[in-house]
Task: structure prediction
Amino acid sequence: MKRIVIVILALLSVSIGNLVAHSAHYDNVNTKQWYIEKQHQVIDATFYFSRNDSAFFEKSDGSVIGLPINILTANDQNFVKAKIVEIEQINKKIEQVKLKNTASQIHTPKFNLIEVGLFVLGGLLLLVLAKTNKRLFVPIASAFVLVSFVGFKSGNIGKRATTTSPTFMDSAFSYYKPSINTRWDNTYFYVESKGIADHEMMIGITSWQQQVPIPQCYIGSNAWSIPLNPVIATTPVPVNNKHFLRGAVAIAVNGIAIFNPYTNTGVDAFLDGQLDNFGGHSGRADDYHYHIAPTVLYNKIPKTSPIAFALDGFAIYGTLEPDGSAMKTLDANHGHYGSNGAYHYHSSSSAPYMIGNMVGKVTEDSTLQIIPQAAAKGVRPALTPLKGAVITHCYPYPTGDGYKLTYTVGSEKDTVDYSWTSAGKFTYKFIVNGVTTVNTYNGSKPCTVPVTSAVNNLPKEIILNIYPNPATDIVNLSFSNEGQKSLVKKIAVINSLGKVVFATDNFVNKIDLNQFSSGIYYISVDIASQSITQKIIVH
Result:
């Protein structure tokens, strides 16, 4: 009796205790019956991950429990050990890729013009002191060296702080409106969507979990939340097979979640063949999401625009910098500080694909997901992987209320034809080897994405970006909110004598500077009821 009590206490001590997870935040894996030898107890669950001498399992209701590996039967212990070896083998491929890219991950110091100017000025002042007051020279020179060292220290993320402009974020998401909607308060930027891409989904998957994409309801209180005031973490948390294994780590600008490259079993989803041609697949709630950056979106958005925003609040770009230049050297977090002083990440075609470490502070709950987190809702029980299946197409209904997914298993061609009604009735038709099986489920009524007027969403503060500055041939103009362009009444360039040397009544995103001589100028923009003036240097 005493031994049984000890075992039960051991179970409780490692249990994560009936933690109900969001159904969107895990991918489908095989279920299995696990036997606790001394208790003669059976648990029907999915192997989740291992840590130290414990294995963690996910039950059908989404709860996660932990068990000491040594209380399982010998067969189950061998199963867990085999899973751990399998995961390690897949992850070795990733580490090999990382080693090849080590040289490109080294962060090199970069100094802006102000820093260099202050350094030169300080040096000149020291020369003057050396000649006029030798007693003050040594202490001031020591202080100068110390301050210079701190100021120029490379990669010192903890010393910098940043905020994210909601109008800048709104501009990045604007290309997919009205399919998505955005709004914000003082704390978060909210993204509302149905989680359905406008590109063909699922095609190219070779390791299929038999899940298919259906609309979700990321609306209202269930919208995706991105921090507007990100805080740099003292120690960035790795995005790997031990952290953030459930749920999103970022939101793409088309309103679709991006998960950790690793699934909740700890394997790289891309290397395992689980992703489609665009880096996505459907989870156990039939929720479509990406596991790597969806670079296909650059077919629709400018290549200098963010492709996504991480849930720590920082933007994610492709292979170009925001100013259009080639991607600069990345740090170990797979990003760096931009010319505007704000941190951002970059995407790549190899591990870590997008985020190496979460630079901003985030809260990771006991089920290994970032909170707050939107939740998906499935309408049917999750299925099991279909070995040998290769998805060939996923055609949307012309009416927008269903899909026809086709796949092959060897020489056999099969279909999943499914649809839904406005009342929330979902019908799945499985056509396998000419035989049709029909399943129907009652789910929630499909949501409607709200539409917010661009003018109503216009902030009181209008942020005009002018770059480069200083400039030689061309200066670029842009607003953090793309919708503000249509409100421009006049743009003028004024020289240092107050004379207007260029003017237009329409918005232009570039001004040719070759017509101006070198010197100081002012760009004045009249927009809505405001007037914005910024100084530029032409050389």
User: Anything to note?
Assistant: Residues 166-442 form one domain.
